[in-house]
Description:
mainly alpha; two-stranded antiparallel sheet
Amino acid sequence: MRRRRSSGPRRRRSPWRCPAWPITWQRAYAAARQWWLESDGQVDWAQLPESTLFEGEQLRPWALAQRAGHPGLEAEQQDLLVAIGTEADLELVAAKAAAEAKPRASRSDRFALGVTALAAFVAEHGHVRVPRPHRQRVDGADGEDQAVVEVALGAFLNNAKARRSKLTAGQLAQLAEHGIEWAVP
Length: 185
């Protein structure tokens, strides 16, 4: 058995290198750490200018993401961030949690929205020949605020037709009521 000779001194592994962490995170951290070192630790990550670019990394968006996602990071990552003065921002953490916690619509709600979009299309165009890529704007209730929702109506009808055996008699009747021929019993 032959031994391989090393071509030079063995490099010591950096503490921020971890195969389980995304390589983009590791690369951005290395750039942020270097920026912090070259700034003698005098970096206010919250006030970093938008245009801050260092070693090809945009530091402000990365720093904001770290401050917002701090609780979801591994303990070692949190320690590395604290070491360069980046800590969790409770307002950003709360805003991220609120954005991720938006309620999911039930199947019956999505179907009702599709039927509403179909009714709007028929009223606007006078027929039910909906092109596959068509998206229909519908005024829908979003809590107490009125929101305009865009429904992929062509996709909705194609999916409904493909799954018509799973539709209830009431759902088929709603589609037939608006002129969909394949929904007529």
